[in-house]
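idk why but the lab printer keeps eating my pages so im just putting this in chat instead. protein + iron/sulfur cluster:
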Amino acid sequence: MGPYDFKPRSRDGLGIDWPYTYDDLAPYYDKVEALIGVFGSNEGLENTPNSPPGILLSPPRPRAYELLIKNASAKLQVPVIPSHLAILTQALDAKKVSALLHPNDPRAAGTLTDAMRNRLPCIWATPCGRGCAIRANYQSTTVHLPPALASGNLDIVTDAMVREVIVAPNGKATGVHYIDKKTGQEVQARARVVVLAASGCESARILLNSKSGLFPDGLANSSGKVGRYLMDTVGSDLSGQIPALEGCPAYNEDGVSGMHLYTPWWLYQQQLSGKLDFPRGYHIEIGGGREMPGVGTFEDLDDLTGGGYGKKLKEDARRYYGSFVGFSGRGEMIPNEDSYCEVDPDKKDAWGIPVLRFHFKWSRHEEKQAAHMQKTFAEIIDAMGGKVLGKPQLDGKKAIAPGGSIIHEVGTTSMGADPKQSVLNQYCQAWDVKNLFVTDGGPFVSNADKNPTLTIMANAWRSCEYLLGAMKKGEL
Amino acid sequence: MDDPQRMDRRQAVKWMLAASATVSILQLPTLGGGPARSGYGTDPNLLEVYKPGDFWPLTFSKEQRRSVAALCDVILPADERSPSATGLKVPDFIDEWISAPYPRQQADAKVVLPGLEWLDAEAARRFHAPFADLSEAQKNKICDDLCSVQKAGRGFERAAQFFAKFRELAMGGFYSTPEGMKDIQYLGNVPLAKFDGPPPEVVAYLKLP
Ligand code: SF4
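predcted complex ->
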């Protein structure tokens, strides 16, 4: 996220400000990027912060269709720059990074160095979303857990479905109550400090289910804000067919399984001067070309050729394969009072734990943004000399993907400066329960057009540093 | 399972999962998923080894398989560059796909199964025989009326939707086989030491800077 994204209300009067600034989080962004390995470039664009020199890995070469999109977008003054993805395009400098992250702890640095050396650079094949056997992409199972286990200070209990946080009569959390999914047994885990990181919504569910005489409305909920300000990302897609790509010589275009180029939000100044009818931005993710074929690869053929079958269909497949491009807008949602989750009074999961039910409403801010996405994508396809497949949907209500479908749900355990208006303080510590923290996407009070994972990690790192300090001082 | 023409179950499931990868990694069923439990909490047991048939029962009857095979080969016949759809066992792929208990696959089953029934009824109505027994010319006559959603005549709208869905699945199965990939010149899925971007002939063809 960028500086504007932490202070949206101060900037345009909408949404909620974070209790800290971009500068407070910036050092943790740098550390996370160094640890996990992120490729990208520093472009110095507005509200799209650079990383310090030496942090980012070199970005992969753009693909052919990505260069065509870049050229066409340039005509429309839409920037297209290298994407930032957590994939090793080159080996990490394990020693250097470990020393940077653990300057005063040679043992930790050594453990981390060993773990980092087990990660190899990308081999430009295979789908990242299914896990990377050579550990080139970022996953907690290959990046965070191995060094943590090697430290000897971590026990992992799997198949443990947490039902509630247990609280002592003095109001302090003493552990969690969980159900062993393999045996169905009820188990208690004791702790000096409880940190929930079950993901936005699920952490709220645990808190709301942790009812007691002391906390009749759920734990850490004296503000009534647990479950509130649920946000997803605004999404809308459009694809096109590009005649210029027909007949192009074939080549291995796999690259990493993700975009090599993308468009960060670029119309901040137009928004500031009131030229757009929606307040917040979106980034554009692009796809297409000679991707590995599968179901869906030719779903637009009917639209293009008027259908068909037989030998002609096989010829059409040869002709059109590789000539499709797709655009996905991913934009900011402003938190609102109508979007929240609460415990369902009737429904329980397989372990007898009450589930959440959701209430969700896009406002006109998001709907207008989605319509703008459609218009922009159609213009880019047009500038490429291509055909839009289907029709651009200029009615924002219809253009916007249903809430929950971009699976960027954040919020529901909001952080803030005022205990009456938020669940957590700026270190993700519950206002009501000193030794309880929530460090997933739940603390977010804005959901910028940047995807949330990096901010979740940086924010968690900052919280954990505070937590450690407080423990050392004997406050916890 | 004793039909030597049929593909090993494990192979077919793997194929189906691979072919669904391009859509959304997050909608994917988990490999080795096992039968879905009803309601909440359907986590699969990832440590279990499943035998063919343990996943979910297949759907097509013998008659349906004949229609599916016939329609597959009208849509994707053999030519000089690649075999026919049945030559690549695409009917097994479609059976596995529509039998899977996941929402997208179940929605497709609701289009494919009534569509097949309609196809045989239409074949009987026009030519007094099941679709699979028609001559090539007769099969083409029926398919000509279905093969375009945009141009489908009155009364054929739903049948055209079925045809489009069936064609999408048949093509998805066909072009995710090594032979299908070769046909359309998908050259990826091989490890590379480095990724160079488009080669000179592509740069020249597209007049890239
Ligand atoms: S493309 Fe993804 S999964 Fe394949 S090697 Fe590279 S990072 Fe790993």
